[in-house]
Amino acid sequence: MGEFSDRARRRGEMPFLDHLEELRWRILWSLLAVVLGTVIGFIFVYYFGVMELLIRPMRVAYDDPNFRLIYLSPADPFFVTLKLAVVVGVLLAFPIIVYHIWSFLSPALEKNEKRAIVPALYLGFLLFCAGVALAYFVALPLTMKFFQNFQAEFLEEQLEQAKTLAFITKLLIGFGVIFELPVVVMILSALGLVTPEFLQSKRRHAMVLITVLASFLTPGDVITLTIMLMVPLFFLYEFSIFLSKMIWNRKRASEKEEASSGPPEAPPDPPEGSVEAE
Question: What is the pTM of this model?
Answer without folding.
Answer: 0.75
